[in-house]
Amino acid sequence: MTGFEEVADRVWVARYPWLDVNVSIVAGDAGLLVLDTQASADLAREMVADLRRVSRQPVLYAVNSHQHWDHTFGNGVLKAEGAELICHETAAETLPEHADEVRSAAAEEDDERYAAVAATDVVVPERTFSSAISLDLGDRLVELVHPGRGHTAGDLVLRVPDADVVMAGDLVEQGGPPGFGDDCFPMEWPLTLDIVLGLSTRTTVVVPGHGAAVDREHVEQQRNEIGMVAETIRDLATRGVPVDDALAAAEWPYPPEALTRAVHRAYEQLPRSQKRLPLV
């Protein structure tokens, strides 16, 4: 896919090849909202050029679905376009440290794309929220909702009610297993997706952070698979299986190599009452 394609009334999505990351636009008669801002300032400028082939309207808002670099490092470019930057309050708190770590790691890579990442000055949104807010685009409102912790502690989803679109960020994956990273919350993720499902209908277009748009059935399946991961981990910990043995001790809905951080994070996050001493 090249550039932005319309997935619903005045809602466009561009799927960029590096990292298979999505950037979305929602238009109202007053202006535009952009969800996620790309992985570097250079890539963000290319994205804005693509955006301008769709609309010359002012960019009112640029929203980060969470703090990860591939969704936030273009913030400064969108701010220069006049956008108000917005994210969940926890994403704003964690972005500076995350950005420093990513820029330092990128500087060690022999790749011009990573060089652009390392050279990017990261701008943290000043406007934040804790639970939910609405944004006015003139003739339509969009909703930003923090459904709970999952992929990170600062995930949000964006809902366009009149177009029946939900943009789920990295809470939903299309092309592979969910992103269980160093800051995920595997035990809470299924309940978070229950809230996302509550914002959707059978006909809702769901836009993930990476990959092609999906439907509610796909989200339901992923919720059930993540729920299986959570309950399997809970069972293993309750039976006293050591964390380093957990992946080999059960059947999983995803390849075990994709679940290493999920298992370690979940063992750390489970309350003491749900763990037993390791079996011998």
Task: Give an account of the 3D structure.
- This protein is an alpha/beta fold.
- The protein has helices at 41-52, 69-72, 75-80, 89-106, 112-118, 189-198, 216-238, 260-269; strands at 4-8, 11-16, 21-28, 31-35, 59-63, 84-88, 127-129, 132-136, 141-145, 157-160, 165-169, 205-208.
- It has one domain: 4-Layer Sandwich (Metallo-beta-lactamase, Chain A).
- Strands 1-2-3-4-5-6-7 form a seven-stranded mixed β-sheet. A five-stranded mixed β-sheet has the order 8-9-10-11-12, with no helix packed on it.
- The protein contains eight helices and twelve strands.
Compact description:
Helices cover 32% and strands 21% of the residues.
The CATH architecture name reads 4-Layer Sandwich
Mean pLDDT: 96
Strand content: 15-25%
Radius of gyration: 19 Å
**Fourth-level CATH superfamily:** Ribonuclease Z/Hydroxyacylglutathione hydrolase-like
Features:
12 strands; Metallo-beta-lactamase, Chain A; alpha/beta; 32% helix; single chain; 5-stranded mixed β-sheet
